[in-house]
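Journal club side-thread
Mid-discussion, someone asked how the predicted structure for our own chain would compare to the paper's figures. Pasting it here so we can look after the session.
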Amino acid sequence: MPLQPPASPRLPTAMWHISAAWCVPTLSFTGTATTLPVWTEGSADRRPPWINGVRARLHLPARREILRAAESGSPARRVVLMAWSSEGNAGSSASWRPRPFPSWHPSTKLLAMRVGDILRDSLPKNSSVPTIDGYPNLYFVTASPDGGMIPFSAGINRMRPTSGAYSRRPALLIRSSPHKAGSIITPWQDRFEPDRGHIRYFGDNKYSEPQRRADEAPGNAEMLSLYFQHTHPDQEVRRAAAPLVFFEGVTINGKPKGHVRFQGYGLITGVELVTQIEPSRRRPFPNFVFDCLVMSSAREAEEFDWSWINERRNPNASHKACLLNAPAAWQDWVKDGSLALPRVRRRVTGLRTTATSQQRPAPGSREHRTLLDVYAFYENRKARFEGLAEVIAERVLTQAGADYQRGWITRAASDRGIDFVGRLDVGNGFSSAPIVVLGQAKCEGLDTATGGTHIARTVARLRRGWIGVYVTTSFFSVPVQEEVLEDRYPVVLIHGLRLAEELNAMVVERQLRGPREALEEIDNEYPKRLASRDPEEVLFTA
């Protein structure tokens, strides 16, 4: 159905031809092309449309209308497409009735990725199948317009760079495999916290003879080059820089391989040269660890549009044209550089309570096995669990940026409901204030929720300006969490899953043989940590 657009002094008269192959239009027009900052998903042959070398895109409200009509199976709604000139003036419009999705289409996950989405990573690779085993096919979602597939066999996967006038790498795909953490293959543990906008990722150097330098590992070399671009003061350099796209392996049905979770996109903000230990020979080797910022997708309705990466694959698209289709946060960073980082960081303001399922490790997982080891280790000596709780509390508080100092573990005869004491220092030097931290530790059954009376005992010991920390091998029910929030108790709650994660990270960092070795080290220190002192004395310790 050809349409004659309204005349526009800035956009030459064009002719649109629209056909609804399934839910997404195939578009073509004649006349002088301009960049179209709107959005689309694909066409009848599952390849995104290109108009005179520029990808056509549908504005998000129109996209949502398509999805609603397609999911309801009703073609009744009409969707309006607006084409805009590069100056922002409306140039032409058209409407059509979207057809329902084909029967194989399970959800909108095939059209965009959201942080937390799980995709199937199966071998052999196949970019023509939309879903595999009920999950979106990673290679279908990320296929190029000509069907090309992404590299995804390493931790740092380098997409093939374009050549010619607009040379650039489309993206670096970061893949973390938690099940390999602490092994000979991966003697480290990455930390993914996309809801806080932060990922700490270890590079790809390994122990070798002769030992190569950390910057000689191919992935590290690429990341260092990208760090230079991500921190460069020149906007033109930032415009060509590749984004990082993050994926993390996830265990499904007891299988640690074959599925990945999308964890967002972003850039490198810091690099640190570290020394690590190869587990089998206990030999040191150098490596880099990269601090990465996960960027916001709030202005894209929390959706990551892979067509931006595909456009960066197009050797004929200029850096400026590609930027027009980038997420808004990425555009802000290209424009303002490091000044934009605080406002483009991903931050999730979620419910203040956490479901019990998110506090307990999945059965059979590494964290579940670790928690079972902890419970068995302290089963007949639960008082000594206080030593582990003190260490875990220190790790949790310091990772949040706090300056926390351990004090002592209270003796059983004089603990009065308090198991350990610490100090939190706010500020520095003359402009600082110390805060007393009282800790409670409970080695409880993994399937038994922590009772509110135990937390109330901790709260009852708090004086004005003090805070509490409660560490358990179990979990906190929603009513208990609501009570803490409603009564405004200044208590940090650390559940069993977080305890297991921190203990596993400690094992990797110290290159220990397993959780039991870490527990034995902590338990050996337990008698030396005992003291009978007034909590306020911690304010005056060095």
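Post-session note: The domain at 108-344 is CATH 2.30.280.20 (PUA domain-like).
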